Amino acid sequence: MSTTLHDLFERHGNAMPQGGFSADEVQEINVMTAAEFQAELTAQEDARRKSNNEAAGDAQQRARKLFLDKCHRAGMPKAFDGCAIDSKRAQEIVNTSRGFWIYGNVGAGKTHLACSILKGWLYSTSSSAVFVQTTAMLARLRDAMGASNETQATAVYAKTPLLVLDDLGKEAPTPWALAKLFEIIDARYGARLPTIITGQHTPNELAKRLSRNGDVEMARAIVSRLLGTCAVMQAGGTDKRQSRKSL
C-alpha cells in the first residue's frame, strides 16, 4: 500500500515538520499529482483549523458555564442568564463605593439592569456578591430568629462586598421589618459597602411607603442611608417582559 500524505503527517505527530517533508518522504507519495498533493495538504490544514476552532468553542462554553454557576451561587435567577455583562457600571461601583438605586414601573427592566451590573461585578472583580429579593431576605431572617445562627444570617447581607436587594418596597413595613432593614443598610453604610436596590418607588415614595405604619423617623433613616450609598437612576422604556413574549 502506498504512503499517503495523511500517513506522513501522522508520522510527524500530525504536524508539518520544520523544513517540510524530506525528499525521500515526498518520493513515498509521488504517486500523487501536484494538484492532489496540494488538495490533501489543504484538507489537512482545514481539519486542524476546524479542530482548533471546536476546541476554542468548547473552552468558551466551559468558561461561560463556570461564570454562570458563580452568578447563580450569588443568588442571580437563571431567568437572567442572557443579560449582558455591565462592566462599566460595575467599575463605577469599585471606583466610588456607591451602588445604584434603580426604580421604574413594572417590567421596565430594573432587575435585568441590576443583574447586568452584578454580572459585571463578578466578572471584573474577585469580590463576592449576594442577590436577594427583599421579601425573601426578611423571610430567611425571620426564620433564623431565636436560633444560634441569627447573627450569622444577618451578616450574610450586612457584610457581603456587594448586595443586590431586589423589589425593595414590596415587603410589609412592620416595625420588625423596618428594624431589620435599617440594621443591614446602616451596617453597610458605615462600612462603605455598595448596595444595589430595585423597586417601583422613588426615594420620597419609598419613605412614605415604609412609614405607612407610623415610624417616619426609621423610614427616613433607611432612605437617607441608601441615598448616601446609591446613585439614583430610572429604568425606562417599554415593558421588557411583554416585549420578550411578543418575539
Relevant terms:
5-stranded parallel beta sheet, 247 residues, rod-shaped, alpha/beta, single chain, Rossmann fold, 58% helix, disordered C terminus
Describe this structure in words.
With 247 residues, the chain is an alpha/beta fold. It folds into two domains: 5-67, no CATH class; 75-246, P-loop containing nucleotide triphosphate hydrolases (Rossmann fold, 3-Layer(aba) Sandwich), CATH 3.40.50. 58% of the residues lie in helices and 9% in strands. The chain has eleven helices and five strands, in the order ααααβαβααβαβααβα. The protein has a five-stranded parallel sheet with strand order 2-3-4-1-5, sandwiched between helices. Helix 8 links the parallel strand 3 (163-166) and strand 4. The protein is rod-shaped and about 95 Å long. The relative contact order is 0.11. Residues 238-247 have low confidence and may be disordered.
Entry summary:
The protein contains 11 helices and 5 strands.
